[in-house]
Amino acid sequence: MKLRGYDAIIYSAGEYMDEKKIMKVNFESCVRLIKLAEKQNWKGNIVFLSSSSSTYGRQSQPVYSASKAALNSYIEARHRELAEKGILINAIAPCKVNTRLLDIIHPDVPRDSVLTPEYVANHVLKYLNTDVSGHIIFLRKGFD
Question: Considering the entire predicted model, what is its pTM?
Fold first, then answer.
């Protein structure tokens, strides 16, 4: 995969159900993307989609929570070094979002208590063209 020609990358791949794939998709693939950017001397912004589940292990989703916590820690550990190379990395970590996944995981959650996909997308877009790096932006309903 050639990254040249791209100024920014939104990385929103995620796995929730298959425990054999969760760490590979939610964490290891992010590390591979960053290593690829370094190898190609790519410069730009990468915005990863994390989750509020990273803040503490959720009883019903321990491996998912661990994978998003690993992503956040990796961003915090590498952002300065990568910024010196021109690679700015940040993560948006929303709480519950009104998606099909929410229908599966939390079907009884009132829809007026969750974030909209558009709300999350607007925050992602803000970080596509920024000079900051290493931010983990936690989004919660009613905390604007």
Answer: 0.91
